[in-house]
Design brief:
460 residues; four-stranded parallel beta sheet; 12 strands; binds iron/sulfur cluster; 18 helices; alpha/beta; globular
Length: 460
């Protein structure tokens, strides 16, 4: 059994590391004091506050050792697949073969935050003509050039078509620098016409049959490339096994989200929940370990719920959060201001939905890819958010804009209008840069005002 839930600093974690009761949670080979990651340059950790459970320690160590895992996988003879932009589809296919390891070079998105802009990646992107008018994913270019953050993959895939302008431009620049990319197209999801066959998608959307067939054909090309790389067959049986493992991760995360977003007090902080949700996309380069890490978090959350302990007071404002934050510290701030998370949509809702099991594997993956909130309209996205707000009883919505992100210019306004009209809850739009330090006081004021609004509305 772990301590009473508390958010602690990195220094506190390191001070208590040797004496921490693990509550039966084994700390794996990649475990150790969190402070060692600061020596690697991850200085933002010094400004964060962490959940004090062994399960959270395991989560953070898992996240922060991905690069080591990738290098070890290559040294062990496995092939690396850099999957770009689709956020959850191609990794399911790659992990269906046990000699492939997939990861998202897009994950460099967070390097400017975690290394407090000391990595030089943004300057490299600048020098390549990708300046701050692009979203922080431009750090990926610098990561390729320096090779200091992840090994260069043996195969690079990237979804195109209905993707953001930022990523299209940056991936094309990468291609121009001499990194070959297997492009596969995902069309903009549209409603079926009256005479068209309608195919239901995970998450409640629908698409015409012709779009499913198109994406299936695109994924067939990806399948061939993966099996060529692996030197073994990626047949339907292998894909079905891969889908079952991905669904195991998604099922655990669904349970964790449900427990955490509905319990009072809230049993797990917003920051650890954000990191946990991200595991659904790429499994942090080890699918089995992802299952173990999320299971630990779920067990811890359930223990806390049973003991009636957690972070928030009964009065905490129940907030639904839209978009991932470029600065992880913003998640700590929500709780400091008297809020708690009751629902999220971090741009990859389709990676959390169970993949259909009643259709052939490639069709199931095509349906899942077309359920991506970013390949449909902002109205679609808002519709799904409204359903989740109602499900988790959120009392307010925060839409966090990503600096430079092309989709953020107007999308927040559309989502805000629909959410206000349908749910009648306040919506706050904020911009969260990779380092919020300069705007921290004003961000705090705005979040506090939102929490105050929520509390005042209750007494009406
Ligand atoms: S613009 Fe948005 S969707 Fe595109 S890479 Fe940046 S954060 Fe991701």
């Amino acid at each position: 059994m772990s301590d009473t839930p508390r958010q602690i600093t990195l220094q506190e974690w390191d001070d208590r590391y040797e004496s921490v009761p693990t509550g039966g949670v084994p700390q794996p080979a990649y475990g150790g004091p969190l402070g060692r990651h600061v020596a690697d340059g991850d200085t933002r950790l010094l400004k964060l506050r962490f959940d004090n459970s062994p399960a959270a320690l395991r989560l953070w160590n898992f996240l922060l050792t991905e690069e080591d895992r990738l290098r070890a996988a290559r040294a062990g003879g496995k092939k690396l697949v850099g999957t770009m932009k689709d956020l959850g589809t191609v990794p399911v296919m790659a992990y269906s073969l046990d000699n492939l390891v997939a990861f998202y070079p897009d994950g460099a998105w967070w390097i400017p935050c975690v290394m407090e802009v000391n990595s030089g990646l943004l300057q490299i992107a600048d020098s390549l003509g990708i300046d701050e008018s692009f979203c922080p994913v431009r750090a990926m270019l610098g990561a390729f050039v320096t090779e200091a953050h992840f090994p260069i993959p043996d195969l690079l895939t990237c979804s195109v078509g209905a993707t953001c302008d930022d990523f299209s431009a940056i991936a094309q620049r990468l291609n121009g620098l001499g990194y070959p990319i297997l492009w596969w197209e995902i069309p903009h999801r549209r409603c079926p016409e009256e005479e068209e066959e309608t195919v239901p998608l995970p998450g409640g959307f629908a698409a015409p049959r012709c779009q499913i067939e198109f994406v299936k054909a695109e994924l067939e090309r990806v399948r061939i490339a993966l099996q060529d790389l692996a030197g073994r067959s990626l047949d339907d049986e292998a894909l079905a096994r891969g889908i079952a493992r991905a669904n195991r991760v998604r099922g655990l995360l669904a349970e964790l989200r449900s427990v955490v977003f509905t319990a009072t007090p809230c049993p797990m902080p917003a920051l650890e929940m954000l990191i946990a949700e991200m595991l659904a996309i790429h499994f942090c380069s080890n699918q089995e370990e992802t299952i173990a890490v999320v299971q630990d978090l779920l067990d811890e959350a359930n223990r806390r719920v049973a003991a009636g302990v957690g972070y928030s007071s009964a009065e905490a404002a129940r907030v639904f959060w839209v978009n991932p934050v470029a600065d992880l510290r913003a998640m700590n701030l929500l709780e400091d201001c008297g809020g708690r998370i009751c629902g999220t949509e971090y741009l990859f809702a389709h990676a959390l939905d169970p993949i259909p099991l009643d259709v052939p594997p490639l069709e199931a993956l095509a349906r899942m890819a077309l359920a991506d909130p970013m390949v449909g309209s902002a109205v679609d996205r808002a519709t799904r958010i409204v359903a989740e707000i109602r499900r988790f009883g959120a009392e307010a919505v925060i839409v966090s804009r990503i600096p430079g992100a092309s989709h953020c210019a107007l999308e927040g306004e559309i989502i805000g209008e629909i959410v206000r009209a349908k749910c009648g809850v306040p919506v706050l739009e904020i911009e969260v840069p990779p380092l919020t330090d300069a705007v921290y006081p004003s961000l705090r004021t705005r979040l506090e005002a939102l929490v105050e609004t929520v509390v005042n509305r209750r007494s009406r």
